Amino acid sequence: MNPSASLKNDLQEMLPLSPATFFVLFALADGEKHGYLIMQEVKVLSDGKLQMGAATLYTTIQKLADQSFIEEVENDSQDRRRNYRLTRAGRQLLNAEFSRQNEVLLLAKAKKVFPLGGKA
Amino acid sequence: MSFVLELSCWVYKRMLPLYPDNLRNRYGDEMEQLFKEQLMDASKEGTSGIGRVWRSAVYDAVSLVGPACLEPIRLWTLATLLSASAIFLTTLSFCTFRNIGVVHGCALAQAAQTSGPGSTGDLVPISQGHKMFLECTGESHGKPTVILATGRGLGAHQDWSLVQSRVAEFARVCSSISDVVENMHDLFTLRSCPVPTFLLGPRRAAFSFATMRCSIPPTSQVLSSWTLPTKRWHGEMQPSPPRFPVQTWI
Q: What is the ipTM of this complex?
């Protein structure tokens, strides 16, 4: 099996992502951010439905960093905050989750159980 | 920064040790910084904003730390229930227990505490992966060997350690914390105790001794019907021989 296919299989096994993991990755999709910015971005992206505390946020960051889906960015300032960004694997994982969600949505549309413009 | 914010930050810093070490060591500073930023933003909304941040922080702590704290409590409750059931069933004679790990550990700890400087107590591997505790005092090649059968239900280790110290004055003494015959046989065979050998223990050990006698050298003798040492003995260790050598020759 070639490496990219193997990686794809590994990523598929991690799906579906938990809301915290998904939104942290999603928040970092448009560039590097520090913890507080990630928290604010998650709040916006989830329309205020997911509000993480500092411990939940950093537990998620720790897990993702240990799995090499995100990485710390060197920070020259004296600030205690560290910036984080998606790695290539992290971006692939996020894309895989988007694809999965899209497939589910397409399936729902195909079965006409979720009409466009309707309410969930 | 207002007093309320400073106090909040101080309290939050004291809350950090609740979190797992690896999280706190790696991200503790950032968590503190993030909480401070949250508070400063929320303080623009007044007390309700600060209250919201605190609610979130407490919920966060409970949801993250709660399950980890509940696990030991759950295990403790389970162990208590199990122990209570075991005591209840044993009391009603529905079942009996062999030397289980915990009891063995206690006996071992006692042995370590009560052993004199001249004693050698250690765990001897016997058959089926079991281990037995054997403590010997007196000359290593001294004759005869006197084996004290202590163990489950046959007197406390402290009582027998008094007997052992006295008998060691004129003989080599070995004591075992179990009366399981086959195990004892393995134990003393492995350790090659010098003959002649005397087995010494209370009347309740007589059957075990009778069984054991079949597998020990013919130069050995078995003594039983030993009266267990009483509390009085702890304070009245007389230099004269013990007053209860009512032996029955099997």
A: 0.79
